[in-house]
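This week, work through this protein record:
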Amino acid sequence: MDAFNNLIVRVVQLMPKPVVGFFSKKYIAGETLQDAVDFVKKLNAKGIYATMDVLGESVANKSESIKCKNEALEVLEAIEKNKLMANLSIKPTQMGLAIDEQFAYEQILELVKKAAEYKNFVRIDMEDSPFTDKTINLYKRIYTDYKNVGVVIQSYMRRSFDDVVALNKIGTNYRLCKGIYVEPVAIAYKGKQEVRDNYLKILDQMFKDGNYVGIATHDKPLIDSAYTRIKEQNIAKDKFEFQMLLGVREDLRDKINSDGYKIRIYVPFGKDWYAYSVRRLKENPSVAGTIAKSFLTFGRR
């Protein structure tokens, strides 16, 4: 079955974009901000929170980056206007980190300031390893003056536990995920279990030091382990939440919600959906396989 699903992912990448769009609908709220707002309203009606993201990563110049920043400002304004239970996620390279670090800092600072006016929050995503130090340094600069900002830690990176030990000292708010970028074995764990083990080691340290953490995973063994820790350590509900991607393991999403834990869904939207969709399908090839089988059997119904 895994071989079939992985084959489907490889085939999908050779298909025209409209066909890839068929496979990716599960992961994307739509192309417009209004699409995303409408989708978040549906989640909120179920008591589920969201983090909204305008799709796109590295940009070619400052003009493109400023456009991305302005789109992110529109997201914050829409959240405020519609009283959504949502915050903002941003990619640092989208804000110009690969172009000029000071420029990216100023761009993201503007977003964090606007979010502070609305009593909202900005999550700075973590990208691939060339940007790890730059992202953490940028986060720390902003956090010095504004506390409504957080960062992402990836458990497959060998350095992550040490990063967390240091960042815990300033009260960092985290999203903890496994990580999906392709990295060399010298700096990243490759085995499924060693990534899980490091995830739980990091989570334990975050809980121990009293930091807020978004437990971002669709891995049921990790979710079960987090449940156990929360109950055994009597972790207060205002110190954590669970987080998931749009369209992935909705059964687990609904169970976490019904169990009375806060759950936040990553809601991406925008015209730059192609690269994101291919990454999601690579990460979850079973989804591509399920959709493909449904497509192939549609005519027999």
Summary: The first strand starts at residue 49 and ends at 54. The mean pLDDT is 90. Strands lie at 49-54, 86-90, 122-124, 149-154, 174-177, 213-216, 240-245, 263-269.
